[in-house]
Amino acid sequence: KTIDTLGDLRGRRVLVRSDFNVPLDGTTITDDGRIRAALPTLRRLADGGARVVVMAHLGRPKGAPDQKFSLAPVAARLGELLGQEVSLATDLVGESARSTVDGLADGQVALLENVRFDARETSKVDAERAELAGELAGLADAFVSDGFGVVHRKQASVYDIAQLLPAVAGDLVLKEVESLSRATTDPARPYAVVLGGSKVSDKLGVIANLLTKADRLLIGGGMVFTFLAAKGHSVGSSLLEEDQVETVKGYLAQAAENGVEIVLPTDIVAADSFAADAPHATVPAEEIPDGKMGLDIGPDSGELFAAKLADARTIVWNGPMGVFEFDAFAGGTRAVAQGIVDATAGGAFSIVGGGDSAAAVRILGFDEAGFSHISTGGGASLELLEGKELPGLTVLAD
Ligand code: 3PG
């Protein structure tokens, strides 16, 4: 069900779950991609005359108010982007929330304070979540689920609320699901997946699933050192998950059996320490010297990865290739991003998933239009790629 099925919106109080979990430096938002991604739904509702009440989380506060995680910077940025003041209630379901909602005129947008300031939001006890959802439902006449980044969470503002109000998917959730489905259901081939990020253990489910779906897996980022170790190479003092080496050996064997090509870097930019200005050199991936830590894939690997993407028809990219926040270690991530942009220009369907790679695209100055879809989901897009059912989506279908 979509927003269209809600009919005439004028004067109706519509509660929207968005994902505004943005990176902050103090109170400064360093990447507002998730806020911008929420605008189509919010504009549509406001233009239709709804009284729009948005709820969202920021970070992982411990179930009680904590000013560090206040949504105040988000309310300010959202107001700028929408071109109207967005008032922020100082609580979630209390006096401030009620009076803020009561004060809304048709077409106005308000934001409730961080849903995770209430311990019931993330409670494992169904009755506790249902109680909070009941209080939230009292603030509105309909619910729009548009926080794609949290649809994998069985939480009061995502899951339970959808059982209490007429509930529909927002435009962002629809777009995300449609785009990711192009990779999960009958992808155009060759289907290449680039995986990076720090840990193999965060991506076990997705790797296992991709070994039955993808044609090519390109591995970089911190997790690559566990792959290199599994091949018997020395990784110096690079990030290594010793307890995953056997699992990765199993993946390599299964890939060979299934005819899935695993592409590993041939060279690595290795540094003396983890710092922006650390002395560094490019070394063969098979032999990272003792005491050196790999912080990026090397230039030959960047070329190799781009070549492996050039003829792909479907590309999914999740996780940076190196510590792209430091200029000296951004080359691999840049090369992969450029490879994907070129393949997309040649007709490939490309998805950038995961908060870090989406942020990398923007921070490295790539035009977002060069990719077919930039997902706002981290864990949520991974779980979809894993083939899991996501509670925030199934509850809408029920
Ligand atoms: C994310 O950043 O991936 C989402 O906002 C979900 O956040 P969470 O992992 O804290 O639930």
Give descriptors for this structure:
398 residues; alpha/beta; 17% strand; binds 3-phosphoglyceric acid
What does this structure look like?
The chain is of the alpha/beta class. It has helices spanning 33-47, 72-82, 95-102, 126-137, 171-184, 204-210, 224-230, 245-258, 299-310, 331-345, 355-363, 379-385, 391-397, and strands spanning 13-17, 24-25, 28-29, 51-55, 87-88, 109-111, 142-145, 167-169, 191-195, 216-219, 234-235, 261-263, 267-271, 280-284, 287-288, 293-297, 314-318, 349-353, 373-374. It has a six-stranded parallel sheet, with helices on both faces. It has a six-stranded parallel sheet with strand order 12-10-9-17-18-19, with helices on both faces. Strands 14-13-16 form a three-stranded antiparallel sheet. Helix 1 (33-47) packs across helix 2 (72-82), helix 7 crosses helix 8 and helix 9 runs parallel beside helix 10 (331-345). It starts with 12 loop residues before the first strand and ends with a helix. 3-phosphoglyceric acid (3PG) binds next to loops.
